[in-house]
Design brief:
By secondary structure, the protein is an alpha/beta fold. It has helices at residues 13-27, 53-63, 117-135, 154-159, 166-172; strands at 2-7, 30-33, 44-45, 50-52, 68-73, 77-79, 82-85, 87-89, 95-99. Bound molecules: zinc ion (2 copies).
Length: 173
């Protein structure tokens, strides 16, 4: 399986590398990193000052060369009525998206310098693995340590391990 990472906007090289490494190690797949793309016109919602996640998924599906494609962006995303999302994917779809914007938030929800690069990198890895998991047919897992656990805030993200639990792992093989 090839997963193509599609950077949308300014994504730093170390972030792309961490995303790529995480996918390779968890799914044992090939990973390519696409040339950066512009933010899709029309994705911005002026009223919310945020971007529609669906547009990034559509872009990743359209330009990606992989069986699975994931947009990676520093922009703040929302989906339907949720205030924000770390990422979004459709079950068994071939496109998905992860935003690093809110992953830089500290555990108490405020923006701060305390979130070290290391914590940030771990969060990026987990969310990338999580969204690709959905595209491989995995739904949310009740195991709080599993990367497929639903994590609405970074607090839950930080509790998760960067990989699939045994039962999720068996399901994707
Ligand atoms: Zn999810
Ligand atoms: Zn699991």
């Amino acid at each position: 399986m090839l997963v193509d990472i599609v950077p949308v906007g300014e994504v730093p090289a170390p972030v792309k590398r961490q995303a790529s490494d995480a996918l390779q190690s968890v799914y044992d797949c090939d990973v390519s990193v696409h040339e950066p793309r512009e933010i899709p016109s029309g994705a911005y919602d002026e009223g919310r000052s945020q971007y529609r996640a669906e547009e990034f998924i559509e872009l990743a599906s359209r330009v990606g060369r992989g069986e699975k494609n994931i947009a990676l962006t520093p922009e703040d995303l929302f989906y339907r009525r949720r205030n924000y999302v770390f990422g979004l994917a459709y079950l068994d779809g071939n496109g998905s998206v992860v935003s690093t914007y809110r992953l830089q938030t500290s555990s108490d929800g405020g923006f701060s310098e305390r979130g070290s690069d290391e914590i940030f990198g771990d969060r990026v890895r987990k969310e990338i693995v999580h969204e690709i998991g959905h595209t491989l047919g995995l739904e949310h897992c009740d195991n709080k340590r599993c990367v497929m656990n639903f994590s609405p805030t970074v607090r839950e993200v930080d509790v998760k391990e960067p990989h699939l639990c045994g039962s999720c792992s068996r399901r994707v093989r």
